[in-house]
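Structure (tokenized):
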């Protein structure tokens, strides 16, 4: 099942594990969250948080992942770059991330940007309170 992993990067065992974790994730993950998942795998003891940082930097360089930073927080969240993307509303209290159904910038992303400019991405921050925290 090697085809699953995109070409252009050397696939070490650890990189594959991290890729698999992101592949199964249903919302963006921080390096710490990825690390926590990685340590639960069969190869877990070989991971350090710095390993995750290095792998995420390599993935980012290859555009395998999209990094998002919410509300000016230091921590970046990573999700696989699947050619499509999801925006999230974030709860100001519990930091829960709720996916949006659509992208409001779809028309801009795919063609109708300003002249003499190539758009490669965009960010959108939506925040408020989840059902639990609003109660
Ligand atoms: Zn909440
Ligand atoms: Zn979008």
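Design, position by position:
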């Amino acid at each position: 099942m090697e085809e699953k992993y995109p070409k252009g990067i050397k696939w070490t065992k650890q990189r594959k594990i991290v890729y698999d974790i992101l592949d199964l994730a249903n919302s963006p993950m921080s390096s710490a969250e990825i690390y926590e998942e990685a340590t639960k795998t069969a190869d877990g003891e070989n991971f350090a948080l710095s390993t995750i940082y290095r792998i995420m930097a390599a993935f980012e360089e290859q555009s395998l992942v999209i990094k998002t930073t919410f509300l000016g927080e230091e921590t970046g969240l990573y999700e696989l770059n699947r050619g499509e993307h999801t925006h999230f509303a974030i709860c100001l209290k519990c930091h829960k991330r709720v996916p949006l159904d659509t992208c409001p910038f779809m028309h801009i992303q795919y063609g109708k940007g300003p002249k003499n400019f190539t758009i490669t991405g965009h960010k959108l921050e939506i925040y408020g309170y989840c059902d639990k925290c609003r109660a």
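Reviewer-requested clarification: The helical segments are 13-24, 31-39, 49-61, 106-109, 131-134. Residues 49-61 form the longest helix (13 residues).
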